Protein backbone atom coordinates (compact mmCIF):
# COMPACT_ATOMS: atom_id res chain seq x y z
CA UNK A 1 0.00 0.00 0.00
CA UNK A 2 1.23 3.49 -0.79
CA UNK A 3 -0.16 6.95 -1.29
CA UNK A 4 0.64 10.60 -1.70
CA UNK A 5 -0.97 13.60 -0.03
CA UNK A 6 -0.11 17.02 -1.39
CA UNK A 7 -1.20 19.99 0.69
CA UNK A 8 -1.15 23.50 -0.72
CA UNK A 9 0.53 26.32 1.16
CA UNK A 10 1.76 29.78 0.25
CA UNK A 11 4.87 31.90 0.58
CA UNK A 12 2.79 33.78 3.12
CA UNK A 13 3.58 30.93 5.52
CA UNK A 14 7.23 32.02 5.72
CA UNK A 15 6.99 35.75 4.95
CA UNK A 16 8.39 38.10 6.19
CA UNK A 17 10.89 36.23 8.39
CA UNK A 18 12.55 37.58 11.54
CA UNK A 19 12.67 41.33 12.24
CA UNK A 20 13.46 44.12 12.68
CA UNK A 21 11.67 45.25 9.51
CA UNK A 22 12.43 48.16 7.25
CA UNK A 23 9.68 50.44 6.00
CA UNK A 24 9.83 48.87 2.53
CA UNK A 25 8.61 45.45 3.78
CA UNK A 26 4.97 45.34 2.69
CA UNK A 27 2.37 45.04 5.41
CA UNK A 28 0.42 41.92 4.53
CA UNK A 29 -2.60 42.65 6.73
CA UNK A 30 -3.47 39.01 6.29
CA UNK A 31 -1.93 37.55 9.41
CA UNK A 32 -4.57 34.83 9.79
CA UNK A 33 -3.98 33.64 6.22
CA UNK A 34 -0.22 33.55 6.83
CA UNK A 35 -0.66 31.74 10.15
CA UNK A 36 -2.89 29.06 8.63
CA UNK A 37 -0.46 28.47 5.76
CA UNK A 38 2.38 28.04 8.26
CA UNK A 39 0.15 25.61 10.19
CA UNK A 40 -0.51 23.61 7.00
CA UNK A 41 3.25 23.22 6.51
CA UNK A 42 3.84 22.03 10.09
CA UNK A 43 0.84 19.68 9.91
CA UNK A 44 2.20 18.23 6.66
CA UNK A 45 5.53 17.42 8.30
CA UNK A 46 3.89 15.99 11.44
CA UNK A 47 1.73 13.68 9.31
CA UNK A 48 4.79 12.69 7.26
CA UNK A 49 6.43 11.41 10.43
CA UNK A 50 3.29 9.53 11.50
CA UNK A 51 2.63 7.77 8.20
CA UNK A 52 6.07 7.23 6.67
CA UNK A 53 6.19 3.56 7.73
CA UNK A 54 2.82 2.97 6.06
CA UNK A 55 4.04 4.17 2.67
CA UNK A 56 2.01 7.36 2.65
CA UNK A 57 3.89 10.54 1.88
CA UNK A 58 2.78 14.01 2.93
CA UNK A 59 4.32 16.91 1.08
CA UNK A 60 3.37 20.54 0.78
CA UNK A 61 3.46 22.47 -2.46
CA UNK A 62 3.61 26.23 -2.39
CA UNK A 63 3.06 28.44 -5.42
CA UNK A 64 5.71 31.11 -5.78
CA UNK A 65 3.25 33.74 -6.95
CA UNK A 66 -0.46 34.24 -7.30
CA UNK A 67 -2.26 31.58 -9.31
CA UNK A 68 -5.10 32.77 -11.53
CA UNK A 69 -8.16 31.80 -9.49
CA UNK A 70 -11.54 33.55 -9.29
CA UNK A 71 -10.64 34.90 -5.84
CA UNK A 72 -7.29 36.30 -6.95
CA UNK A 73 -8.79 37.83 -10.09
CA UNK A 74 -11.52 39.47 -7.98
CA UNK A 75 -8.92 40.76 -5.52
CA UNK A 76 -7.08 42.53 -8.32
CA UNK A 77 -10.23 44.54 -9.16
CA UNK A 78 -10.39 46.20 -5.74
CA UNK A 79 -9.49 49.90 -5.62
CA UNK A 80 -5.85 50.34 -4.65
CA UNK A 81 -4.90 46.74 -5.49
CA UNK A 82 -1.31 46.43 -6.62
CA UNK A 83 -1.26 44.77 -10.04
CA UNK A 84 0.85 41.65 -9.99
CA UNK A 85 1.30 39.14 -12.78
CA UNK A 86 -0.36 35.79 -12.25
CA UNK A 87 1.68 32.61 -12.18
CA UNK A 88 0.60 29.89 -14.57
CA UNK A 89 -0.69 26.79 -12.82
CA UNK A 90 1.46 24.51 -15.02
CA UNK A 91 4.37 24.65 -12.54
CA UNK A 92 2.05 23.42 -9.78
CA UNK A 93 0.84 20.57 -11.98
CA UNK A 94 4.35 19.51 -12.98
CA UNK A 95 5.47 19.63 -9.37
CA UNK A 96 2.49 17.53 -8.23
CA UNK A 97 3.20 14.88 -10.88
CA UNK A 98 6.86 14.86 -9.79
CA UNK A 99 5.91 14.35 -6.12
CA UNK A 100 3.65 11.43 -6.99
CA UNK A 101 6.40 9.79 -9.03
CA UNK A 102 8.70 9.58 -5.99
CA UNK A 103 8.93 6.72 -3.50
CA UNK A 104 6.52 7.75 -0.72
CA UNK A 105 8.68 6.10 1.94
CA UNK A 106 11.67 8.30 1.15
CA UNK A 107 10.18 11.48 -0.33
CA UNK A 108 7.98 12.88 2.40
CA UNK A 109 7.74 15.90 4.68
CA UNK A 110 8.94 18.34 2.03
CA UNK A 111 7.82 21.93 1.64
CA UNK A 112 8.34 22.61 -2.06
CA UNK A 113 8.05 25.86 -3.95
CA UNK A 114 6.71 25.10 -7.41
CA UNK A 115 9.11 27.16 -9.52
CA UNK A 116 12.17 25.92 -7.62
CA UNK A 117 10.97 22.31 -7.93
CA UNK A 118 10.52 22.66 -11.70
CA UNK A 119 13.99 24.17 -12.02
CA UNK A 120 15.79 21.81 -9.63
CA UNK A 121 14.37 18.63 -11.12
CA UNK A 122 14.28 19.88 -14.74
CA UNK A 123 10.54 19.31 -15.13
Automatic annotation (TrEMBL):
Family annotation (InterPro entries): NAD(P)-bd_dom_sf (IPR036291), Sc_DH/Rdtase_CS (IPR020904), SDR_fam (IPR002347)
Alphabetical list of Pfam families matching this protein: adh_short (PF00106)
Transmembrane segments: none
Designated name of the protein: SDR family oxidoreductase
Organism (species): Candidatus Entotheonella gemina
Taxon lineage: Bacteria, Pseudomonadati, Nitrospinota/Tectimicrobiota group, Candidatus Tectimicrobiota, Candidatus Entotheonellia
